[in-house]
Amino acid sequence: MSKANLLDRRQVVSTLLANRKNVVAIGGLGASTNDMCAAGDHARNFYLWGGMGGAAMIGLGLALAQPKLPVLVITGDGEMLMGMGSLATIGLQKPANLSIAVLDNEAYGETGGQTSHTSAAADLVGIARACGINDSRAVTTMAEVEAFAKAVHDVSAGPRFANVKIDSAGLERILPTRDGTYIVNRIRADLGFQPI
């Protein structure tokens, strides 16, 4: 992959969430959660802390429980590689309201920037398609990000998957709360449910 003209991760996430309306967004471990918070904290943001590989499955569970709500998972390539089996389950369940955006900088940012498998043989779009997620796309332009952001609101045509090639710039961490109970209860309240 050419390292020229890669997308800015914060701009990508900001665009995905800009006109979110009633979207529930799940942030994968690390930078994607920071990027979501940087785009603006929201009662429907679910920030994942210490659950490496679990973002897509949390998104699946929420999408199945709330089929009329658009659910967007925003995660990184390392986290998606660890939870790759979730794509098979999502492809089997086919939740029409679930979208997954992978921020792919081809590196394991949380552990020191080692090269990830997506820099060589691992084709996440091909894997998603092979798992039955027919709307799986490689995204390399902001116009494609904008198109995917609009598609997220269609709760009848998913699941959909986008592998977004981003740069590997080191950015200031914008850390949301790490209080899991608070995060869950805040989302529950915004959806009209009692706290747990």
Automatic annotation (TrEMBL):
Pfam family, one: TPP_enzyme_C
Gene3D superfamilies: 3.40.50.970
Keyword terms: Decarboxylase, Lyase, Membrane, Transmembrane, Transmembrane helix
GO biological process terms held by the UniProt record: small molecule metabolic process
PANTHER family linked to this entry: SULFOPYRUVATE DECARBOXYLASE, SULFOPYRUVATE DECARBOXYLASE SUBUNIT ALPHA
MF (Gene Ontology): carboxy-lyase activity; thiamine pyrophosphate binding
Protein name: Aldehyde dehydrogenase
Domain Thiamine pyrophosphate enzyme TPP-binding: 44-152
Xref: SUPFAM superfamilies: Thiamin diphosphate-binding fold (THDP-binding)
Residue ranges of the TM segments: 46-65
InterPro entries xrefs: Sulfopyruvate_deCO2ase_bsu (IPR022494), THDP-binding (IPR029061), TPP_dependent_decarboxylase (IPR051818), TPP_enzyme_TPP-bd (IPR011766)
